[in-house]
Automatic annotation (TrEMBL):
<keyword id="KW-0418">Kinase</keyword>
<dbReference type="GO" id="GO:0006072">
    <property type="term" value="P:glycerol-3-phosphate metabolic process"/>
</dbReference>
<dbReference type="Pfam" id="PF00370">
    <property type="entry name" value="FGGY_N"/>
</dbReference>
<feature type="binding site">
    <location>
        <position position="258"/>
    </location>
    <ligand>
        <name>ATP</name>
    </ligand>
</feature>
<feature type="binding site">
    <location>
        <position position="13"/>
    </location>
    <ligand>
        <name>ATP</name>
    </ligand>
</feature>
<keyword id="KW-0067">ATP-binding</keyword>
<feature type="domain" description="Carbohydrate kinase FGGY N-terminal">
    <location>
        <begin position="6"/>
        <end position="243"/>
    </location>
</feature>
<dbReference type="GO" id="GO:0019563">
    <property type="term" value="P:glycerol catabolic process"/>
</dbReference>
<feature type="domain" description="Carbohydrate kinase FGGY C-terminal">
    <location>
        <begin position="253"/>
        <end position="442"/>
    </location>
</feature>
<feature type="binding site">
    <location>
        <position position="12"/>
    </location>
    <ligand>
        <name>sn-glycerol 3-phosphate</name>
    </ligand>
</feature>
<keyword id="KW-0319">Glycerol metabolism</keyword>
<feature type="binding site">
    <location>
        <position position="16"/>
    </location>
    <ligand>
        <name>ADP</name>
    </ligand>
</feature>
<feature type="binding site">
    <location>
        <position position="305"/>
    </location>
    <ligand>
        <name>ATP</name>
    </ligand>
</feature>
<dbReference type="InterPro" id="IPR018485">
    <property type="entry name" value="FGGY_C"/>
</dbReference>
<feature type="binding site">
    <location>
        <position position="403"/>
    </location>
    <ligand>
        <name>ATP</name>
    </ligand>
</feature>
<feature type="binding site">
    <location>
        <position position="129"/>
    </location>
    <ligand>
        <name>sn-glycerol 3-phosphate</name>
    </ligand>
</feature>
<feature type="binding site">
    <location>
        <position position="78"/>
    </location>
    <ligand>
        <name>glycerol</name>
    </ligand>
</feature>
Amino acid sequence: MTDTLVALDQGTTSTRAILYDANLTPMASAQEEFAQHYPHSGWVEHDAMDLWKTSRRCLAEVLKDARPAALGLTNQRETTVVWDAETGKPLAPAIVWQDRRTSEVCAKLREEGFEDEITSRTGLLLDPYFSATKLAWILDQTEGARAAAKSGRVKFGTVDTWLIWNLTKGRVHATDATNACRTMLYNIHEGRWDRTICDRLDIPMEMLPEVRDSSGDFGETTLFGAPLPIRGVAGDQQAATVGQACFTPGMMKSTYGTGCFALLNTGTEPIASQHRLLTTVAYQLNGTPTYALEGSIFVAGAVVQWLRDGLGVIENAADTLAMAQQADPEQQLYLVPAFTGLGAPWWDADARGAIYGLTRNTGPNEFARAALESVGYQTRDLIEAMHADWTAPQDTTLRVDGGLSANPFAMQFLADILGAPVDRPANLETTALGAAYLAGLATGLCPEPEAFAANWRAEATFSPEMDAATRDAKYSGWTDAIRRTLSA
Ligand SMILES: Nc1ncnc2c1ncn2[C@@H]1O[C@H](COP(=O)(O)OP(=O)(O)O)[C@@H](O)[C@H]1O
Ligand SMILES: O=P(O)(O)OC[C@H](O)CO
C-alpha cells in the first residue's frame, strides 16, 4: 500500500513512529523511551546513538507490513549533535535543549553587548536553550574538532539533521528552516546561516547543514526495504502548529506536554517581540517562510509529574482531575513551578519554585488544583505578551494539544482565566500528524493547506464561565506571586 504516510517523532523523552492512511488517520504506532543523562547539576544529555537506534527500531516496527509514500520527520528542537562524517560516530553526547551549562558563556556575551545583535538577526534571546553555545562548547572540548569541521569531516546537526544523515547513510546533510531558526546561528530575515554570529562563536560554517523547505526533498532511506522518500521535516512545536492547521495569521496553538509551547501565526513578515517572546519560523513552503511568535514555558505537565514523583500525592496524572474538583473553593493557593527557572516572558534562570497562600487546611487537593491552574496562568502570561506585541487581524480560538490537554479541569480553567474559548481536537498527537501532512503535501497525497484546514475539527470546546471580577482577582494574585518569585 503506497497511499500511506509515516511520521517519526523524536521527542525529549521518547521516540514514536506512526503510520497514517491517506486521510491522516493513525493506523499503527510504535514508541520507545530512552535514557536521560544528568552528569552535573543543570546538564542534560542524550546519547545520540540512542536517538538514532530508537528511531530505527520504531520505524522498522511500523514499516513491517507497510510501504508508505513518504516519511515526515519531527523532533525535539535545539538539541545539538556533532559527529565525524567518516566514522558516523558522535564526538560527544548530544546536549539537550534543557541543558544550562553555557549560561556563563551567554552572560559574558550579554555583558559584551552582543544580545541585541543576536535578537535582531535570529529572533531569539541570548540563552543557553538554543544550539549555538552548545555547539561552541563541544568544539571547545574536543581537540582538533574545529580544524576537522573546516575540512568538512566533522558535522553539526539538530536532531532532524542527525537522523536524516543516518537514514540516508550519510548522503544528505540538511535541515529545514524551522529547526535552523532554533540554533541561534540562522538569520531569519535573510534565510541563511549568519556569518557574524558564526565568526563570533568561532563556528566553522562548513559544518552546518543545508537549509531546506519544511515540505520537500530530503533524500530517501533504503534501510527498511523499498526506498522511502523523506519529504517532510519540522521541529516538533512547528509540526504541531501545522497539525493544528494554524495556517492563518492570528491562529494559535498551545501544546501541553512536559513543558508548554504556544505559537501564534503572524504571517510572512517576522514580528520583533518587545515582550521577550521568540520570533520563529512556523513553517517554510515553496521558499516562503511563515513566522510565529513563540512563548516557551519549561514546566507544564512536569508540575503534575512533580506531584506524583516529588510529593507522592497522586499515583497517576489523571488523579489530579478529581482532586482539583474537590479542592476547597475558599482557599487560594498559587504554585509557581519555577523548578528550573522561569521561561517566557520572564526568562529568569535563577528563579526557583514557590507556593503562596498555604493555610492549616491546605492539603493534596489544593496542591493538585494549584498545579493545574499554574498551567492556565502561565499561558495567560504568554498570551498577554503576544497581544502586547502584535494585533491579530481577527480573533481565533486557542487550539490545544499534548498530554495535559486531556485534563478537562485544566482546560476549563484555561478558558476561564483567558476569558476566551479553547478548542481541543480528537487527535492530541498533532506533532506527528503535522510531520505526516508536510510529507503528504510534498508527494501530492495530502491537499493544500486551505483544504487541510477546512477538515480540522474540534472534539471539545471549553467556553469561559468565570465572571470577569473573579478572573481579574485571580490573575492579579498570580501576577503578585510571580513578582515575589522573580530572582531580581
Ligand atoms: N490527565 C492528565 N492530567 C494532567 N496531566 C496530565 C494528564 N495526562 C498527562 N499529563 C501530563 O502530560 C505530560 C505528558 O504529555 P506528553 O504530551 O506525552 O508529553 P511529552 O511529549 O513532553 O513527553 C506529563 O507531564 C503528564 O504529567
Ligand atoms: O520533546 P518535547 O515535546 O518536550 O519538545 C521539546 C521542544 O522542542 C524544545 O524546544
